[in-house]
Amino acid sequence: MKKYKKNFVMKKLLHITCICTINLQLDSYFDLEARKGKRGGAWMHNWQAHCTDAEGKEQLASAFVVCNFPASTKTNPSLLRHDDVVTLFHEMGHAIHHMLSTVNENEVSGVNGVEWDAVEFPSQFLENFAYEPKVLKLFAQHHETDETIPNAMIEKLVKSKNFLSASGMLRQLEFSIFDFKLHTKAYKGEEVQNLLDAIRKDTALIQTPSYNKFQNGFAHIFAGGYSAGYYSYKWAEVLSADAFFAVVDEGIFDSPTAKIS
Ligand SMILES: [Zn+2]
User: Fold this and answer.
1) Is the domain of 187 the same as that of 209?
2) From ligand 1's centre to the CA of 87, what distance in Å?
3) Residues 110 and 126 reside in one and the same domain
4) Is residue 96 a contact partner of residue 122, using CB atoms and an 8 Å limit?
5) What does the mean pLDDT of the chain come to?
6) pLDDT of residue 15
7) What is the pLDDT, as a whole number, of residue 256?
8) Does 2 fall in a domain?
9) Which long-range contacts (CB under 8 A, 24 or more apart) does 38-41 make?
10) Centroid of ligand 1 to alpha carbon of 91 (angstroms)
11) Which residue among the candidates 91, 120, 127, 174 is catalytic per the annotation?
């Protein structure tokens, strides 16, 4: 990819145009640092999708990547924690998914019209690269000494990611099964708690105290388009792990599997 950088509209907004080897032009805009009054969190916004209009005119894809990384100062650049790097890779996964589309129909181009199961697939796929020494060593340096991140530190990052991950998986299964089953009939009153207790018998290693009312605040049950779709987090993880290991086995970079045909 060829990259061009130029200032765009706001001081902190970085605009990158990429021309890919498949001759597709993409426009991505980055608003990465936190500032007063900015909405919290991180997200990708699919501003325009690649498509062709009725006259055959091509519309190029463009996307915004918005994060809330520590603000740079006159003396320090914005210093990212590893968590922040993972977040950036995640949102870039969404952006690349959206912008690399060659589909000509707006409604199903890029991230438009993608089934819920697969929306988090490319983003979680890219997250995996943020733990790879070959990738981290390309940019992870001490900002004063320029020392490249040592292997021992990368090993610790990987270990901390894996620590208690099986327990985390069981918790996600509990949420997903609860979400599925709750949508199979109209549960009333105590039935909701009884349903959750029965699921926890299969999934929980540690007994949840009875005062815990997690279900009352589990917004995904109805909000954000997730209804009976919470499982998609875990499912996308499975898809992304399969895809990632297919590439890893070939050495991460220049993998024939990764080539766009
Ligand atoms: Zn995401």
Assistant:
1) yes
2) 9
3) no
4) yes
5) 88
6) 67
7) 80
8) yes
9) 38/68, 39/66, 40/68, 41/68
10) 6
11) 91
